[in-house]
From TrEMBL:
Residues 8-75 form the IPT/TIG domain. The lineage of its organism: Eukaryota, Sar, Alveolata, Ciliophora, Intramacronucleata. InterPro entries: Ig-like_fold (IPR013783), Ig_E-set (IPR014756), IPT_dom (IPR002909). This is IPT/TIG domain-containing protein. It comes from Strombidium rassoulzadegani.
C-alpha cells in the first residue's frame, strides 16, 4: 500500500489550446522526482473523466523560479515536470478544471488549475 503522493501544480504551459485538441501540456510543480519509479502511469484530466490522457515524467527547467548565482547571472534549475499527452478534442471552448494524478486514479488530486 503506497503512500499518497503530495505535490503542487505551479503552472501549466500552454494554459489553453484549440478545441480540436492535440496540445501537449507541460506541468511545472512537484516535487515529482521522488515518484518516478513509484507511480509509473501518471494521468492528466481536462474537466470530466472522459477527458483523461496519459502523461510522462520529463526533465525541464524550472523557468518560473530563476535562481541568481553570486555573479548575478541567471541559471535555470533543472527539475522534473509532467508532460501530458495530446489534449483531447472538446465540444465547446470553455475553461475546464485541469488536474494531474500520479496514481492514475485521481485519488491524489489536491489542487487543480484552469485549462481553456
Amino acid at each position: 500500500n503506497k503512500e499518497k503522493p503530495h505535490f503542487t501544480i505551479d503552472n501549466i504551459a500552454p494554459a489553453h489550446g484549440p478545441v480540436v485538441g492535440g496540445t501537449r501540456v507541460t506541468v511545472r510543480g512537484g516535487p515529482f522526482e521522488q515518484y518516478i519509479g513509484v507511480y509509473l502511469e501518471p494521468k492528466c484530466r481536462f474537466g470530466s473523466d472522459s477527458m483523461i490522457v496519459g502523461a510522462s515524467y520529463i526533465s525541464c527547467t524550472a523557468q518560473a523560479a530563476k535562481a541568481q548565482d553570486k555573479e548575478g547571472k541567471h541559471s535555470d534549475r533543472v527539475s522534473t515536470c509532467i508532460q501530458c499527452e495530446d489534449t483531447p478534442a472538446s465540444l465547446e471552448s470553455k475553461p475546464v478544471e485541469f488536474s494531474v494524478s500520479l496514481t492514475g486514479d485521481f485519488s491524489d488530486v489536491e489542487s487543480a488549475s484552469q485549462f481553456y
